[in-house]
Amino acid sequence: MKNLILSGLGLFAASALALCHAAHPLPRSAPEAQGVSSPALQALVRGLDQQIEGMHSLMVVRHGRVIAEGWWTPYAPEQNHVLYSLSKSFTSTAVGFAVAEGKLSIDDEVIKFFPQDAPTDASNNLKAMRVRDLLTMATGHQDEPPTAPDAVSAKSFLAQAVPHLPGTHFKYNTAATFMQSALVQKVTGQTALDYLRPRLFEPLGIAQPVWDTNFEGISLGGYGLRVTTEDIAKFGQFYLQKGQWNGKQLLPAEWIAMATSKQVSNGSNPKSDWNQGYGFQFWRCRHNAFRGDGAFGQYCVVMPDQDAVIAITSGIRDMQAVLDLLWDKFLPACQPKKLRSNPAARDQLNETLASLRLAPAPGSDSSDLAAKILNRGFVFSPNDQKLERLSLTSSDGGKNLTLLLRLDGKEISLPAGFRQWNKGRAAFPGGRLAQFPDEPIAGTYAWPSDNTLALKICAYQTPFNLTYRLKFEGDQVTLDAEANVSFGPTKQPTLVGRLAPDANSN
Fold first, then answer.
1. Whole-number percent of the chain with pLDDT over 70
2. pLDDT tens-digit map of 271-280
3. For 65-99, how does the pLDDT look when each residue is reduced to its tens digit (9 = 90+)?
4. b or e along 178-217 (b: 16 or more beta carbons within 10 Å of the residue's beta carbon)?
5. Phi-psi region of 218 (alpha: psi -120 to 50; beta: other; left: phi over 0)
6. Pairing with 93, which of 156, 252, 259, 501 sits 20 to 30 Å away (CA)?
7. pTM of the model
């Protein structure tokens, strides 16, 4: 640990020197020049596109160079993406910097940093909990403490019963990551976001990170961070390079080795990438790889044996299926030497990557019913979804539509094009840990049948999209809403609305 502190002395000088490179993206290369064939990458991309519903972005890096990158429209390279638990790996990195600077030790007891938040009758197990137990998800909890932004705090965490001796019981624990963020803020006076800016984000050229906070202004730690796909790839490359960037040692290699090695056992299934052991907020993988990941398919996969990094964002349900495809398609494609140039295959790969798109709403572009329901309002009886009213408007005879909703007294406008993603901003309800009051959105529409309209609305900095199905019969509309993924039920109860008395206005 002494080496960590000594190594941290040059941190700020290294960070300052690296800033001159901050604006530069990762270098690009033809795949064959890095020992990977374009047809192999084509097979990977097609597999992800055709077998995995809900892909948002992919970036493949070999030998420090991007060899394939693609975004599924309306997702785009310049857009941040919600990381969910991939945020955890960034939080443990902040702890690593704090340790390197001598501000705390992983062997410190957690409770000593928060004496005013600790219960007066603290148990022996709580008193025994150390920073390393937070890092390894081995806090001794049986039940996870509260994690919502309006509830998570040092006080709520320390109030939770600790029935197991810390260090002996793996329990995935998002609140434990919040405590790491709270620790960083306690010992540095800065949020994890601000603390990482000069130490990690600026040297790596991560230009626009956003990190949500709890009600006390503490970065959430366990989730809430947004960065771009390339930022994820840079973060993975930073760990692959053992804490070096542009020739400077920003974070001690000793910390990188501890963080990405197996610190605690979490299962025994040899076919599961969730049973290979856990480090400091990094999962061990099969094939000697490691990763940070987040709900619904946010990945930073680091493959030291292949000198490769893969960054993925998505909104998927089966996270193991994506890793299985990586091992099946990409792993055997990594060759030790350069391959013969293949411009035709490379052009075909680039064409495929450039044409990726999220599936739009399915159906026809129009219906005989469209003219009869445009600009007519429908009202709803009180319901748990708090939907009061809806209407459809169009300024071009139905070629482009806008769904207007009144939810809990607030007006929401959702634009939609036929087989094209029309963009706007709106509140986007995503359920638990996914409430977005003002989000960039894009929408498509189609008529699956003469009296049914489908609108697919994508919050394209998040994993979420919502599909609304409106079935019109006489003066009545039946509304079904379903999300692609959710922390709870994906389908909402059916609502029935009736033509408003002022039916000719929206």
1. 93
2. 999 999 999 9
3. 999 999 999 999 999 999 999 999 999 999 999 99
4. bbbbbbbbbbbeebbbebbbbbbbbbbbbeebebebbeee
5. beta
6. 156
7. 0.93
> Whose CA is closest to 167, among 139, 131, 202?
139
CATH of domain 2-354: 3.40.710.10
Are residues 354 and 70 in contact, defined by beta-carbon separation less than 8 angstroms?
yes
Domain 370-499: assigned CATH number: 2.40.128.20
Residue whose pair of structure tokens reads 């599936």 in the numeric block: 359
Instruction: Please state the domain extents for the chain.
Output: 2-354, 370-499
Determine the Cα–Cα distance for residues 398 and 402; give it in Å rounded to an integer: 9
Pairing of strands 435-449, 410-418: parallel
Average pLDDT (337-358) is 97
Q: How many CA atoms lie within 13 A of 46 on its CB side?
A: 11
- Angstrom CA distances, 253 to 15, 97, 146, stand at 16, 11, 34
Q: Is 221 helix (H, G, I), strand (E, B) or coil?
A: coil
Length of the chain: 506
Reading the block at residue 193, the tokens are 């976001």
304 φ, ψ (degrees, to nearest 5): -60, -40
